[in-house]
Amino acid sequence: MAKHGKKYIEAVKQIDEKKEYPAKEAVSLVKKTAYAKFDGTVELHLKLGVDVKQADQMVRGVTLLPHGTGRKVRILVFAEGEGERLAREAAADMVGADDLIKQIEGGFLDFDVAIAVPQMMSKVGRLGKILGTRGLMPSPKAGTIVPPEQLPRLIKELRLGRVEFRTDKTGNIHTIVGKKDFTEEQLYDNLAAMLDAIVRAKPAAAKGQYIKKAVLTSTMGPGVKLDVNEAVNLHTAA
Asked: Partner of 224 for a Cys bridge, out of 26, 113, 151, 203, CB 3.0 to 4.6 A?
């Protein structure tokens, strides 16, 4: 069992580990117990009642956080010709085709999201083993394969706070909802938007309780359990 430092132990004392907190109270507690000296992230962790072994029960989607993520997103775009011009004008961090593919095959992974135009996928496809395991492979489901004329819009959304979420192999979702230094109102708005998107992404084939457990936490800080019933319905008040 991992040993925790004094600051963590003091932070935990402020939380009733058996209680499930309303969202606004949970956000307040997460900020109070975020003792890291740097501006860490605030994350949402969900355990879903889905069978991820069934293709029709995978949960995946995107949402635009009202107040952004608070972090700089490094955007790479696979495009040539008109697509390359539009991506550069939209201030993508890296734009290219065969040159970028070779760099990635050589070990370059210094970016947070990859976008591609459809015409490039026949070449980008061979990067599947490298990018796929890291969640960086452009895909229609993630909305990261778009025609050239849509590149400026997508790049702008990514800068503003577009976040992708998806279940892992155990049926859990781990996603960011902001930074520690956001106001409580900003974090609450972002949390509501994220929960709204995840509830709307519920697969039709999923039966029983959809969200089984929800925890809000900060980098290095203790987790705060969310009231699951409220979390499921939070989108109605978002």
From this structure: 26
pTM recorded for the entire structure: 0.80
Which residue type occupies 225? Answer: K
Distance CA 66, CA 68 (A): 6
Residue 107 neighbours by CB under 8 Å, 6+ apart: none
Structure confidence by residue, pLDDT tens digits, 76-99: 999 999 999 999 999 999 999 999
For residues 206 and 232, give the distance between their C-alpha atoms in angstroms, rounded to a whole number. 15
Q: Is 12-69+162-237 in CATH node 3.60.10.10?
A: no
Residue-wise pLDDT for 121-173, tens only, equals 999 999 999 999 888 999 998 889 999 999 999 999 999 889 989 999 999 99
How far does CA 64 lie from the centroid of its chain? Answer: 10
